Amino acid sequence: MKISNNVSSMKESPSVLAAELARQLKAEGKTIFDFTIGQPDFDTPDNIKKAAISAIEAGETKYTPVNGLPVLRDAIRQAFQRKYDIEVTDRHITVGGGGKQVIFAALMATLNAGDEVIIPTPYWVSYPDMVHVNNGTPVIIETSEAQRFKVTAAQLEQSITPRTRWVILNIPSNPTGMVYDEKELGALAEVLRKHPDILVMIDAIYDGIWFKEGPLPSLLSVAPELKDQIFFVDGVSKRYAMTGWRLGYGIGPEPLIKAINKLQSQMASCPSSISQHAAAAALNGVDDDFVDKSVAVYRQRRDLACQKINTITGLSCLTPDGAFYIYVNCQALMGKRTPGGGVIESDFDVVRYLLEQAGVATIQGEAYGLSPYFRMSFATSTEVIEEGCDRIARAVKALTD
Ligand code: PLP
Predict the structure, then answer these.
(1) What is residue 26's predicted lDDT score, i.e. its pLDDT?
(2) Assuming Cys at both sites, which of 90, 136, 278, 294 could form a disulfide with 52, CB separation 3.0 to 4.6 Å?
(3) How far apart are the first and last CA of the chain?
């Protein structure tokens, strides 16, 4: 069968594939310590589930407006206003089947062949492929651990060309958990102010999963005057443990929202009416206690995972400020020999070795555009973190020069 060139050249999401492989091995009866999973291991809070059940019982099972039910738009608007003190109207809001779909639609709605999208490494695996499939050109900026995996204003400035359409910033970041402080955001804002035609996508899907005191620093708070350049993407997947409900949203300039909604009217009509009711309940703070409690649990797991990884000779990681991932530096393992006689030459070799030798599933940094690293999700139990890290330690110790 003939498949379009754009789709043929697209990769399947490596994180989805890695999670699938771990699931397959578990189904075969192997014990796998799975650190690939990019979703909360908590169940959706009961009151959110109840809101969905009530919606079903009330017959709220029909198409909704393309830009979402008024109850959801109100909840999005109020949550955004509470957080950023910026007033938005319905004309600034779009809703979709997950943040992923919203990001895809935004790129599809705006990119023409050759338009450039600036993406700092390490990036969420989907951005470059989403840009490619929509005929754009990803412009990758390499960051380093020394700069805490954050793009600098100077790097941003150097990467801008007359073809730049978007800059994508994912804060807190998947896969590093890094968060930009106000000074760093202020420096980026200074560059962006000089380029009013460039749109900034703030992928804030991990907003709320943040381990420091006080509000998460945001470009919207530091430079509210940039609001007509900013497309803010969020959703309920991560914060409220609702990955399967598929509900995300975007807030941004009116012409962009109009274009995305037009696309949505032809692509999906609207996201699930039931999920919309559930998301409205979540955003209305029906169970904000859940967010506080889950963040406290993630914090403990983060501390445990970082402490364990950083005691393994040959591996190290920075302490993330948000999200639920650590990005483990495995440079020191390059060139080592495995007990089976193989030589470790890449982070993919490390990931394969850990899976085969230790039954530990992780994802290679190559998928995120920055090697040699691997990503571990700590959205899993303390027991899995304890035992999984011990297994990694034993496997690393078994490597020889
Ligand atoms: N952005 C980032 C950085 C993510 O890690 C994910 C999910 O893993 C998404 C967006 C999309 O989330 P969802 O489509 O579940 O809202």
Answers:
(1) 86
(2) 278
(3) 48
The tokens for 212 are 């420091």
Atom 12 of ligand 1 has which residue's CA nearest to it? 99
pLDDT at site 331: 98
0.90 exceeded by pTM: yes
Which token pair is 61?
Answer: 């099972």
Q: Read off the pLDDT of residues 61-118 as tens digits, 9 standing for 90 and up.
A: 999 999 999 999 999 999 999 889 898 999 999 999 999 999 999 999 999 999 999 9
Atom of ligand 1 nearest to the CA of 38: 8
Burial 336-365 (b: 16+ CB within 10 A, else e): bebeeeeebebbbbbbebbbebbbbbbbbb
Peptide bond into 196 cis (omega under 30): no
CB of 80 closer than 8 Å to CB of 249: no
Residues 6+ apart with CB under 8 A from 99: 203, 205, 233, 234, 235, 237, 248, 249
- 399 within ligand 1 shell (Cβ under 6 A): no
Maximum CA extent, the chain: 66
If one counts the domains in the chain, the total is 2
Are both 276 and 337 inside the same structural domain?
no
Q: Tell me the one-letter amino acid at 106.
A: A
Are 318 and 381 contacting, i.e. CB atoms less than 8 angstroms apart? no
Q: For residue 243, give the ligand 1 atom closest to its CA.
A: 15
Using the mean position of ligand 1's atoms as its centre, give its distance from the Cα of residue 222 in Å: 24
What string of DSSP letters covers 197-233? T-EEEEE-TTTT-B-SSSPPP-HHHH-GGGTTTEEEE
| Mean pLDDT over the full length of the chain | 95
Asked if 158 and 210 sit in the same domain, the reply is yes
Q: Which amino acid is at 315?
A: L
CA–CA separation, 119 and 173 (whole Å): 12
Strand partners, 327: 375
Q: Both 111 and 145 in a single domain?
A: yes
Residue 317, domain extent: 5-43+289-397
Q: Are residues 299 and 375 in the same domain?
A: yes
Ligand 1: which of 205, 209, 243, 363 to mutate, most ligand atoms within 8 Å of CB?
205
